[in-house]
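re: the backbone from monday

yeah here it is again, tokenized this time
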């Protein structure tokens, strides 16, 4: 029996239409990042495991159970672990420290695009290989920068065409505030321990903040019953967050303050935020981020403040649904008979050299079938090459959108196509 192969569970093959949408989102993102002064960096998919253990946190789900590890033998003979990167922020921090960028300047804005990998339980909107569009700003603790980063993410999602979105935002406070909050949570949840899921009973001892991020419905109800406030937040952090909200109001960015929003990564402090879309169902998050002022120091760098976000491209594509992209072709060239294929290929090549997206038939189809192919490829025009027209050094040009056609001299073809396209 012949073996039948399929893609690895938790991965996705992009169709040509999905690939065009994927490329379009990345292209539009680059344009928006340029408006905000962000520069692109391209980082490797492979990374040292320790970058994420120290950066993301050893009690996070990512480090505990989701990283894809690759064992390698070091020169010393000991085995070391490298991983397929599960997220981009800690990797950008490693890049910043490795290249001593703090010695070359005091403020940086970067963006990145690429594949991430996590050992998720595959389901709609949750893949083991997925793509992020991310941004990081390093070197400033200004609340106005927090607002700019949030507004940038909001602008990207809006520009992509996602209308059903909600921005949730919260203030975690500084490291000391988070430590006070952890003690407070542990005290208040201890009496409710038996109602928590098995994972959260373990988290309660190791990292109580992870309980708030649990997706289990019973755990959510218990957390909601606590009616959490901001009594653990110091005055400076309260003032910082108030200025962030004022700046967002000034930029007319709509938001909802959600005290239970903590995010699943340990490096976050102060401002955290998440974008959701009701069109995504239960897995409704399509992007998130926050401030991480202690991350670079935890990786051995200087204590440099920073903030960033990442958008899930596949989630964005799901939210867009059957989004219509621009036509694949400008022109589809057809030949009335097999004897005219050479002319069809010649004209197709000429169009391409002039920057016109063009294709022709290589399967010997009938004229009727060729015209159906032009429709399937969403060509703006079809060109019909017939023997009578060629005697006059002409072709028939049909506007596939309006249904009109006319005879055009071959030497005028490029001009006519570009005028109407």
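seq for it, each position gets an aa:
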């Amino acid at each position: 029996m012949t073996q039948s192969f399929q893609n690895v569970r938790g991965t996705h093959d992009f169709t040509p239409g999905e690939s065009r949408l994927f490329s379009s989102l990345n292209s539009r993102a680059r344009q928006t990042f340029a408006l905000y002064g962000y520069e692109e960096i391209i980082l490797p998919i492979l990374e040292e495991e320790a970058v994420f253990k120290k950066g993301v946190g050893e009690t996070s789900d990512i480090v505990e159970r989701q990283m894809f590890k690759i064992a390698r033998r070091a020169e010393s003979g000991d085995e070391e672990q490298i991983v397929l990167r599960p997220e981009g922020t800690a990797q950008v921090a490693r890049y910043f420290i490795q290249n001593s960028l703090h010695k070359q300047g005091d403020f940086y804005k970067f963006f990145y695009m690429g594949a991430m990998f996590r050992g998720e339980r595959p389901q709609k909107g949750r893949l083991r290989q997925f793509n992020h569009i991310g941004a990081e700003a390093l070197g400033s603790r200004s609340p106005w920068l927090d607002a700019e980063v949030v507004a940038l993410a909001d602008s990207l999602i809006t520009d992509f065409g996602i209308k059903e979105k909600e921005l949730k935002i919260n203030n975690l406070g500084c490291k000391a505030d988070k430590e006070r909050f952890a003690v407070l949570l542990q005290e208040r949840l201890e009496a409710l321990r038996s109602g928590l899921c098995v994972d959260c009973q373990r988290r309660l001892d190791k990292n109580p903040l992870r309980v708030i991020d649990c997706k289990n419905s019973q755990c959510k109800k218990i957390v909601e019953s606590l009616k959490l406030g901001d009594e653990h937040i110091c005055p400076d952090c309260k003032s910082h967050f108030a200025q962030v909200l004022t700046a967002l109001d000034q930029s007319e960015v709509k938001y909802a303050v959600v005290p239970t929003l903590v995010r699943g990564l340990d490096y976050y402090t102060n401002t955290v935020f998440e974008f959701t879309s009701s069109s995504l169902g239960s897995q409704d998050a399509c992007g998130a981020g926050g401030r991480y002022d202690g991350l670079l120091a935890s990786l051995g760098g200087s204590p440099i403040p920073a903030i960033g976000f990442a958008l899930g491209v596949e989630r964005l594509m799901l939210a867009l649904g059957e989004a219509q992209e621009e036509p694949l072709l400008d022109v589809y060239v057809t030949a009335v008979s097999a004897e005219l294929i050479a002319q069809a290929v010649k004209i197709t090549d000429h169009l391409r050299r002039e920057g016109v997206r063009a294709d022709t038939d290589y399967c010997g189809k009938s004229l009727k079938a060729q015209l159906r192919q032009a429709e399937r490829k969403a060509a703006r025009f079809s060109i019909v090459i017939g023997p009578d027209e060629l005697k006059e050094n002409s072709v028939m040009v049909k506007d596939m959108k309006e249904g009109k056609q006319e005879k055009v001299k071959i030497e005028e073809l490029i001009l006519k196509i570009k005028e109407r396209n």
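The first strand starts at residue 39 and ends at 40. The mean pLDDT is 90.
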